């Protein structure tokens, strides 16, 4: 099962996703990137059914870029999140809904950092921290307990590491490595890939 | 669906199912005065984006399309085909694998086609060349794979003729994935591994050996080693231990053979022979088909010899 997590700080958003692309019982890839760059300061993390994730995420990605080409400026994270939700909602009651769970993380120059939680029933919630997947059941309580709105970047990474430790300890599936990225007013930064250490 | 909307597929059985009244405006079943005052059924709409292929070709028969046949339409039910009951169960038994190493790409597969518990054909070609530098291994439903390989070969060739350059392997995979997307959720079962060599004209990063897995579920993954089919876990067991970038050509071929052999030994739905293709910058080359029964007896003899040796040493 796949895992996404996002933590918002006062001037940044930290996001992480596991790196496994699975097909029934097999790990087909160990280094699969589940984050899609919508613009210079917006990332879309997408998990769910095999083809739907890439199709839907690329569709949103290209549309956000098209908006920029047509209008000369980029969509804000809030606008992008609502656009994404609208698309999910439109296809929800069609013959082919998209079965995807999303986290949209971005930095708006006017409003600051934002983390948006969306799920396959096209709900949308702006949240200080969020997670998707079975791993969320294990880690949301850790986030509840230790999250503070004024986290520094190092503290946020430590909180993320605590969550991953818990997954490695209690989650039945092996999630060996996680891509970690940080978004702030400078843009998207790649942080060190977190591995479980057990090889 | 997103792709349908973009392409404007409105006069299809899919659309008709949810908007039944629009069927009576649909021209398929009605007689029109066409130009030059000739009566005739309007020709089935061809989608421009697909190179003139009649659209009903791309539309899958719906699982409950039997309900259409109760409708009293005068036209032949060509577009709304009744559910065909298969006389045998479909099975997706196979072992195919592909991996990248310093000497190029190796693609290997068994040759058994099974239908339920029956070996429908012991000598099937599961690896098909598409062009001089691309080979595709197929698993899933045999008929679907054959069809989609031909469609892919045709689209690649059309692209080459239209744009005067060969489409990259990544582009080929994306094209195939988008062509398969409308059939997601139907019984189409196709899992292809594209093994090829990109002769990149532009960036140096794009050229070289490529291995991409495309599945009718919608998955499209690029990687260094893939094994697909019912025998794939067994093949992974052998491949994951021995596979290295710096293998020589002979070692890589022998590893691929060994992986398929072990998989066919354990998996009931894989077996008979092993096919092996090697793709380099010069194109693909094919190794002669080998019967794995012989390999099994050779392996047994090898084990006997080793056991004897051990007994002698102990004595």
UniProtKB/TrEMBL annotation, chain A:
CDD domains named among the record's database cross-references: proteasome_beta_type_2
Keywords attached to this entry: Cytoplasm, Nucleus, Proteasome
One protein family per Pfam: Proteasome
The family this protein is said to belong to: Belongs to the peptidase T1B family.
Gene Ontology CC entries for this record: cytoplasm; nucleus; proteasome core complex
Subunit: The 26S proteasome consists of a 20S proteasome core and two 19S regulatory subunits. The 20S proteasome core is a barrel-shaped complex made of 28 subunits that are arranged in four stacked rings. The two outer rings are each formed by seven alpha subunits, and the two inner rings are formed by seven beta subunits. The proteolytic activity is exerted by three beta-subunits PSMB5, PSMB6 and PSMB7. Component of the proteasome complex.
Localization (cell): Cytoplasm; Nucleus
Biological-process GO terms, alphabetical: proteasomal protein catabolic process
PANTHER family the record matches: METALLOPROTEASE TLDD, PROTEASOME SUBUNIT BETA TYPE-1
Residues in the signal sequence: none
Protein name, as recorded: Proteasome subunit beta
Principal location class: cytoplasm
Keyword Lipid metabolism: no
Role description: Component of the proteasome, a multicatalytic proteinase complex which is characterized by its ability to cleave peptides with Arg, Phe, Tyr, Leu, and Glu adjacent to the leaving group at neutral or slightly basic pH. The proteasome has an ATP-dependent proteolytic activity. Non-catalytic component of the 20S core proteasome complex involved in the proteolytic degradation of most intracellular proteins. This complex plays numerous essential roles within the cell by associating with different regulatory particles. Associated with two 19S regulatory particles, forms the 26S proteasome and thus participates in the ATP-dependent degradation of ubiquitinated proteins.
